[in-house]
Amino acid sequence: MTITEKVAYIQGLFDGMGLDKSKEPQARVLSEVLDVLKEIGDEIDMLDATLDEHGKEFDGVEDALNDLTEGLTELEDEVYGVEDDGEEDGEDDFFQVECPNCGEELTIDGEVLEAGSIDCPKCGQKLALSFDEDEENGDD
Fold this sequence. Notes:
Blueprint: H1 3-16, H2 25-80, E1 94-98, E2 105-109, H3 110-115, E3 117-119, E4 126-128, H4 133-137
Antiparallel strand pairs: 1-2, 3-4
Helix pairs in contact: 1-2
C-alpha cells in the first residue's frame, strides 16, 4: 500500500466518523493534518515517477563521478608522491629500544626518535635517543 493509499484509507475512516469540523476543534485539526498528509503523499508519488523516468540519467552521473574520483586520486598520488606500499615519509616506522636502567623494551616511532629523548614508562628514567651510528658502536 502506498502512502497516498494509506492517507486515503485514514481519510475514509475520518469521514465515516461523522465529525463536524465546524463545531469540534479536534476534528478540524485532524482534517488539516490529513490534508497535509495527502499533499506529502502526492509529492512523494511525483518524485518516485520522476526518479523512474530519469533513473538511467542518474546512473550515468554516478559513473562519471566515480571516474573523476579515481582520476583525482591518481593525480594526488603523482603530485604528493605517495609510495606504493602505503607508507609516507617513514611515518609508520617503529623502533625497539631497551631501557638501560630497568631493561623494559620500548616501542617508539620516528617522531619520538627525532625528539631525541623519552621517559621510560616503567622506571621513569630519561633515555637519550640518537641517530649517530658512531655513538652506538662506541666510536667518538
